[in-house]
């Protein structure tokens, strides 16, 4: 085939638009998070779009991701934050990537890597203020800060940042938010007493960046909102963010089925009357969530069509309700919503998950295509 049967279409102008909107709304420096292949949008194109829109920083989980950005030509500030014992910190230091330490053991690995890199590191410290995931526990924070200050005095590194991460920022009234912000402010005071004067202090992710001005400090880290998806459904004001990803396919087949016919594995849906169904040639092997079976919708022929029966590995079935639709017709699983199609948030609700998972996991045999200004 000369064309793809299923495409992930990423509109780069919309990423630029979203980053600009978020910068204007928050009024502080922006870190656009492009980990996990840019939340499924493509790490390098998303990063370039974010830089075009004024993102001073890019954020990634792993050093490999950071090095991928450098290999693609990015020369701006990049922070990585998820290391494991034996991590290649020397490569990150040589590539001018800011690395994150959670423990004294990690600091010692970074110090050892400085000699191999032949230059000081740029180092950030992460404190666990209540997420109970990455970051130094509060009872270990003073020791980490003291060791970091000593290493800075030796010339091993410059401590460029202190940061943490919210657990419940998508629930603005959750008491954990106040507790975490208070813990973070205390952690900053500990760092200041030790003589650390970090370039950036950052706590806010997308939801907090939008909803909690007191948590913005010097820098906000926006991931999902940069791609136009709502980080706190039901709480977020309409800022004009626009989803940048659409997932589309061509109907592989259209057929008439009689009343009572069972559809797809397990016959979890039976036609209450004779109808026409369409076969969409994507399934859970391509990241379409099976949990959305019998709940999600797909736009075909200008109307939303319900998914009937279970999503299969390679295909799913939609009810066309006897409308005049032929094989080869465009089926939009999700997109911007501007044409009435479902959004990734709609699919998330149908599958009982979050939009992050929908866009990050979609892939498989979909072909990714980018649309930019002046292109069709």
3D architecture notes:
The protein has 376 residues and is an alpha/beta fold. The chain folds into two domains: 216 residues, TIM Barrel, CATH 3.20.20.10; 127 residues, Lyase, Ornithine Decarboxylase, Chain A, domain 1 (Beta Barrel). It has eleven helices and 19 strands. The strands form five sheets. A six-stranded mixed beta sheet has the order 16-15-18-10-1-19. It has a four-stranded parallel beta sheet with strand order 4-3-2-9. The chain has a four-stranded parallel beta sheet with strand order 5-6-7-8. A hairpin with a 2-residue loop joins β15 and β16. α1 packs across α3. The longest helix is centred in the middle third of the chain and has 19 residues. It is elongated and about 80 Å long. The chain starts with 5 loop residues before the first strand and ends in a 5-residue tail after the last strand. The model has no long low-confidence stretch (mean pLDDT 97). One of its GO terms (cellular component) is cytosol. It holds the Pfam family Ala_racemase_C. Catalyzes the interconversion of L-alanine and D-alanine. May also act on other amino acids. InterPro entries: Ala_racemase, Ala_racemase/Decarboxylase_C, Ala_racemase_C, Ala_racemase_N, Ala_racemase_pyridoxalP-BS, PLP-binding_barrel. Keywords: Isomerase, Pyridoxal phosphate.
